[in-house]
Amino acid sequence: MTAPLELLAGRGTDLLVRIADVACSGRELPPMAERLAELVVRSARALTFCDVYVLDEEERVLEGPGRPPVPLGEGDAGWVAAHGRSRPHPDGRGAAIPVHGDGIVIAVVDVRSAGPCPPDDLALVTALAGLFAPVLSSCRRLRTAREREHAAERFAERAVEAQEAEWSRLSREIHDGIAQRLASLGFHLSAAERALPEHHPEGLAQIMMARRLCELAAAETRAAIGGLRPPVLDDLGLSAALATLAREAGAPSGAIDVTVTVEGELEDELPDHVQTALYRIAQEAVGNSLRHASADHVDLLLEHSSDRVRLTVADDGAGFSIRDVLARGRRPDSYGLRGMRERAELLGGRVAVTSRPGAGTTVEAVIPIPGRRRVTPGRGPGR
Predict the structure, then answer these.
(1) Residue 295 belongs to what domain range?
(2) Full-prediction pTM beyond 0.70?
(3) Which of 153, 319, 328, 342 is the most exposed place for a label (fewest CB within 10 A)?
(4) CATH number, domain at 340?
């Protein structure tokens, strides 16, 4: 048995039980620091006060529950964190004691007593600091992992919002510019038709062809505007937007049937930027089935577990050989697959494409639900 454990065991089994209770009470950093401070005061004979300061992620300041941050090098706790060794208080009524972990000082235990601090109390605090170093290290790594996860989620949200804002801007510019000019062109062609002299079949035919081309261009412009920013996604949510996408996919010819299955109510659980990404992936996958697969039927399935959402788009089209595509020097990321993958990866997810000639194509996107990812910061103590 090591000397610190011998010292702790000498204080009785009740102390060992309290240590075990605190060590197993969770991995949230502020509550753990508070419980450790309470344990120190309860276990020592003369100590009346204890603060536990933990080094922040950037290793610049010490943070304590309900206390202002302490910069490294300032005050007793800051000095101990900077130099890595204990420092008695000048009045002899306590000390600041380092907690070493991950090759650095990760925390400082600052204790005080009403009178001169007994050496055995300081030895007890030093032993507890060493014993709780792995626990505080685990708490600190978990906090760091969560902060980085939240930062990544915020970045992804801002990136999706910026992209959608740009698409909305383009949609407005197309509507106010190209669409209006095409409408004006249609009016002028109608006027030209009325002004055309009688018995001028060739001129009339040219004007009619020009009007037809103008109408086609206007229809394509409206479709582009709707694709850039589908209002139904904002107004009714993801489920309704996917149902609308399915209806519109079969509208031009009725030759393709798209079925949509949504398991559970997702809108309340998914942030707007995740719904937007899933809609865009579904839009691209269904569009690929229409344009390239010669498919008769497309199944679109949206489902979720406790921490992620899964979108599957499967068609019964011609399919293709990914191996042959690679052998010809073409990437399987063509036909918009790269964009789908980038959207999913931006949100910490993935897109997988499976296909065989004559067996159709399946696109599967899996995206974690923000705030529900399983954070695994590393192996904890004693594991």
Answers:
(1) 232-372
(2) no
(3) 328
(4) 3.30.565.10
